[in-house]
């Protein structure tokens, strides 16, 4: 959600964007026909907005796998979580 929100707020356009997550449940919830969560609904709406101007791919990455990309993603997520918007 945070990644999509930042992209939307910065009005980024004409980009190919890949959002990585280690949460299979989040991806499954976003792909579900029935949405029961306000957060999932908000995320879907934000992603819908972002995909009007960009090509967006949501990707699952195995968590805590020692994968260098995952380690960087974890560190970036921690930094973003500390930021004030």
UniProtKB/TrEMBL annotation:
Annotated RNase H type-1 domain residues: 1-82
Domain of life: Eukaryota
Pfam families associated with the record: RNase_H
GO molecular function: nucleic acid binding; RNA-DNA hybrid ribonuclease activity
Protein name: RNase H type-1 domain-containing protein
Upper classification of the organism: Eukaryota, Metazoa, Ecdysozoa, Arthropoda, Hexapoda
